[in-house]
Amino acid sequence: MFFNEFYDKYWNFDNSKFLTLLNKAKNLEIKNRNRRSLHKSAKQIVLFSSVSKKEIWGFINKMSIFTNSWIDIKSALSIVIKQIKNPKFKDIIIEMKLNIDHWITIAETMQQYQKIFDSLVTALVWVWEKTWQLWRILQELDKSLLENIELKWKVKWAMIYPIILLVLTFAVVIFMMVFIVPKITETFTRANIALPKLTQVIVNVSNLFKNDFLTLIAIFVWLNILIKLIKKTNAGKMMFAKMVIWIPVFWSILRQSNIIYFIKSFTILLDSWVLLLDALKISSDVVPNLVYKREVMRIKNEVELWLPISKSLWLNLDYEESLYLNKLFNEEFAYVISTWEETWTLSDSLKKIWANYDVELKRKISNLSSSLEPIIIVIVWFLVGTIVVGIMLPFFEMWKVAKEI
Question: What is the predicted pLDDT for the residue at 401?
Fold first, then answer.
């Protein structure tokens, strides 16, 4: 009776049901073995609870070196396991190696850890397991992950650097308001001198920082908690994603970095013979900004309905003067896609665009850093200068009174 479950009503053997049952048995055996290993190592202290992108790149880089040296997969994994310092990541690679003995592929193991291995890595490993071109896939992944890490660091530094300068500026201003201004204004209070408006404003702000400092900190903490709670909702995530790509000064860098992420992942997937719809879906997962994710998925859904990608990008070449309204992808990108649909040379064209965008992004980041420095210096001088002038005004009043006497 048990075997009857694997036959349909025409008594044809259903292989999919048998494979599903077999995979469940394998997964159950792996979970039991992991529980036993965790029970043995329960007294060990785990210092790391997450896996960084740099560690993922290090793993792919080592696997690329070993496989290009014609070392088999299990031996390569055994060598890599000895070199990994992060206990959590080491356990995952050990599970990956053990799963091979149970005919569970590396891609299937990676799919169980989607927060660690992104869709691009899992998809390319899946392609390798179908085409047996591991050395080429790992080379592409090694290069792509390193470029993504460098790009992410450059974009973050372009935004963090001016923020650090502004934080230091406000720290200096707060220090002056809390420790310097009160001591000077005590002299004016004892002398019963009428303070000018600017000085009175500075004194009021100083009293606010000095007397209600804990209240201001509490407000700041509650605002951070509120922002985090809003970010956990879908509407909040979309709202902040839209705000990010519309930040003044930074919006061009953020948009161009998202386009580069999409082009790189999309090109690698197409070069690996991944189907167009799958390549679009996986690329949407790689793109960091939620607005761009939604836009790529919209394009994918329209392509699935047999609409050309160029039309999905809102490029219309049916008129003498084309009207392009897509604000997320520029018109040059849409024209390249349109040309590919005529010539089928998308990969080479996208690689050229990616190279041009990468050079342009580096130039924009460099220009932004150099242009923001004098602006921040002006802000510093304005704030500090205003405080100094406000403090000095009563001294001028005292000097006038003394001169009249």
Answer: 56
Distant-in-sequence, close-in-space partners of 247: CB < 8 Å, separation ≥ 6? 254
Cβ partners under 8 Å of residue 249, min gap 6: 368, 372
> Virtual CA dihedral for 338, 342, 346, 348, nearest 10 degrees?
-110
Please return the burial class of 63, using the count of CB atoms within 10 Å of its CB with bins 0-12, 13-18 and 19+.
buried
Go through 360-381 and write b for each residue having 16 or more CB atoms within 10 A of its CB, e for each that does not. ebeebbeebeeebeeebeeebe
Give me the pLDDT at residue 398, please: 65
The last residue of one of the domains, among 119, 144, 169, is 144
Nearest-angstrom CA–CA distance, 352 and 190: 72
Q: What is the pTM of this model?
A: 0.68
| Element containing residue 13 per DSSP (H, E) | none
* 113 lies in the same domain as 195: no
- The DSSP annotation for 35-103 comes to HHHHHHTTTSPP---S--HHHHHHHHHHHHHHHHTT--HHHHHHHHHHH---HHHHHHHHHHHHHHHTT
Number of domains in the chain: 2
The torsion of the CA quartet 294, 296, 297, 302, rounded to 10 degrees, works out to: 130
In the chain, the amino acid numbered 64 is S
CA atoms within 13 A on the CB side of 79: 16
**pLDDT in the model for residue 137:** 67
For 203, counting Cβ atoms within 10 Å of its Cβ (0-12 exposed, 13-18 middle, 19+ buried), the class is buried
pLDDT of residue 6: 56
pLDDT for residue 288: 84
Whether 354 and 254 share a structural domain: yes
Q: Name which of 243, 168, 245, 179 is nearest 206 in CA terms.
A: 179
Q: Where are the alpha helices (DSSP H) in 274-345?
A: 276-286, 290-304, 309-312, 331-343
Last residue of a domain, one of 93, 121, 144: 144
Tell me if residue 186 falls in helix, strand or coil.
helix
Contact, 48 vs 88, CB < 8 A? yes
Ranges under pLDDT 70 in the chain: 1-19, 21-23, 25-49, 129-138, 191-193, 317-323, 343-347, 397-405
Residues 132 and 162 in one domain: no
Structural domain range at position 403: 147-405
b/e sequence 254-293, b meaning 16+ C-beta within 10 Å: bbbbbbbbbbbbbbbbbbbebeeeebbbbbbbbbbbbbbb
Give the amino acid at 271: D
